Amino acid sequence: MGIKPLVLFMTSEMYPFSKTGGLADVLGALPLTLFRMGVNAAVVTPLYGRMNTSEFGLRLLTERCPVGYPWAPITAEIYQADYYGMPIYFVGRGEYFDRRNLYNTHAGDYFDNCERFNFFCRATLEWARRLDWAPAVIHAHDWQSALVPAYLHFWRRTDPFWKDTKTVLTIHNLAFQGRFASRLFFESGLPAEAWNMDGAEFYGDFNLLKTGIAYADSVTTVSPSYAEEILTPRFGCGLEGMLARRRGVLRGILNGADYSVWDPRDDKFLPCIYKAGCAEGKKDCKAALLKEMHLPDQLEDRPVMSFIGRFRGQKGVDLLIDIIPRLMEREVGLIVLGEGKLEHEARLQELAEVHQDRLRVIVGYSEDLAHRIQAGSDIFLMPSRYEPCGLTQMYALRFGTPPVATAVGGLRDTIVPHPAPGATGFTFQDPTPDGFFAAIQQALELWDADKPAWEAMVDRAMGQDFSWEQSAAQYIDLYRSLGARV
Ligand code: ADP
Ligand code: GLC
User: How many angstroms separate the alpha carbon of residue 79 from the centre of ligand 1?
Assistant: First the structure.
């Protein structure tokens, strides 16, 4: 019996090794779910400086994997770890990846991001050549991996090794495209014929995501609604025309939630565990959270809201900031965890000074606190201007914390809005402070006026099932539709 055809994932971040956002959660779960469903999956990711690899037994495979033109004689180190039996290959090169952060500092993006991630793409392909068989599918994610579909599109013509390898590019956020000066295209190793408006060129610049969209065999994004939205100027970030041209290969597959990490029935970060139908455990988590946040006990009987996310325009944190004074006139608590734009961090901290008995703002990144906030709060706020999928609202649902969210993208696909039958949360159409505040008021009214109805909503929210198996099955169908016998 031969080896099963390989699906090789490429990602710039993967939980629990590295993470800046939802991309890491997706790559921490999707490949492993496929692997457990019998797909021969493996992942390639950069080896960053501060990485959580110790418990996974990292070992060096080669110190000198050639990367080819335009890098020769520079080489990559390749390491391997076994992640519950599935191979993870790490691409190392200190000068590119051994840095404090993954992509940027407060001062801006690293100046050599194009070179860093093109190096990652080329090292992945050269490493893949050293595996026994060419992968049946290379599944690339976001702009950092998006040149791989383009290389293969051109190499397949002359290199028999790649002739049967199909490429899938998943877009997690169209706002991040990897846009660089044109000269970097001509140094990239892609053929000059890719330099046109249906290829790598974007208003005179080299656009990595667009390049991937142009040449991938299949393009996916992370929710059905976002797959529609990105064909419009409002959400297309200038690529709506290109996406429309590739509409035939574009598909939206909803992300899943990894309930082995995010489930209050068995969560290592919580002071106590709980499940649907037993409100007591959640109450205890709330009391413990209020204590941890030094918020008054009186809030135990009042709704405590939360926001967890990057302080950026996408997440609508400015809408939240705008309504905080109004919100604080109500008898409610609010806990905000996140980091991002300095002006938002500063404004939130000022507001927290003014409303010390109601509002806590934690500027920073804390995986375990995120779990405790999800569990210990009552209403989860997510006023995103756009949301390709969004994982935090799925986690909030499972933790019995009904979300108040904008009706966009994956939020629309995962929340059943009150007062529809089977409601699991609250949504609003236009991302304005008034629209957001009105939706919060709906939630507060239900909380105050009809406690049994509130508790029924909490139970329904906890009963939602966004397990990865359902999404993984759709990816298997997709790979097979490309002819891969996975
Ligand atoms: P995005 O990827 O756009 O940031 P998602 O909802 O898909 O949004 O995923 C965000 C992920 O990052 C979740 O796992 C969330 O808990 C986590 N996260 C975001 N900000 C923080 C923070 N400040 N501390 C801890 N976890 C965070
Ligand atoms: C991006 C999107 C987010 C999505 C995540 C994982 O970061 O902003 O909506 O959930 O990717 O796909």
Answer: 27
Q: What's the gap in Å between 22 CA and the centre of ligand 1?
A: 6
Nearest alpha carbon, ligand 1 atom 2: 22
End-to-end CA distance of the chain: 14
Q: Is residue 164 part of a domain?
A: yes
Q: Using CB atoms within 10 A of its CB, is residue 9 exposed (0-12), middle (13-18) or buried (19+)?
A: buried
Tell me, using a 6 A CB cutoff, whether residue 23 lines ligand 2: yes
Residue given tokens 């891969």 in the structure block: 484
Residue 336 structural domain: 279-462
pLDDT above 70 for 306: yes
- Residues 291-309: what's their mean pLDDT? 97
Q: 110: burial class by Cβ within 10 Å (0-12, 13-18, 19+)? A: middle
Residue 19 among known ligand-binding residues = yes
Residue 263 inside a domain? The answer is no
Give this prediction's pTM: 0.96
Statement to judge: residues 384 and 341 lie in one domain? yes
Strand partners, 207: 179
165: left (phi over 0), alpha (psi -120 to 50) or beta: beta
pLDDT, one tens digit per residue, over 74-109 is 899 999 999 999 999 999 999 999 998 999 988 899
Query: In testing the pocket of ligand 2, which one of 170, 220, 222 has its CB within 8 Å of the most ligand atoms?
Result: 222
* Ligand 1 contact, 16 CB (< 6 A): no
Tell me, yes or no, whether 44 lies in a domain: yes
> What CATH number did the domain enclosing 405 receive?
3.40.50.2000
Kindly tell me if the per-residue pLDDT of 141 is higher than 50.
yes
Helix (H/G/I), strand (E/B), else coil: 272: coil
Q: Whose CA is nearest to atom 3 of ligand 2?
A: 390
Using most ligand atoms within 8 A of CB, pick from 14, 20, 25 the residue to mutate for ligand 1: 25
Q: Say what the pLDDT of residue 370 is.
A: 98
Nearest CA to ligand 1 atom 20: 309
Nearest to 255 by CA among 13, 21, 22: 22
Helix (H) or strand (E) holding 41, with range, is strand 40-46
Q: Measured between alpha carbons, how far is 208 from 370 in angstroms, rounded to an integer?
A: 32
Q: Does the C-beta of 338 come closer than 6 Å to ligand 1?
A: yes
Q: In what order do the strands lie in the sheet with 179-180?
A: 179-180, 205-207, 201-202
For residues 272-280, give the mean pLDDT. Answer: 88
Half-sphere exposure of 295 (CA within 13 A, CB side): 30
Q: Could you tell me if residue 64 is inside a domain?
A: yes
What ligand has the least distance to the C-alpha of 225? Answer: 2
Whether residue 192 is found in the same domain as residue 317: no
Closest CA to ligand 2's atom 10: 390
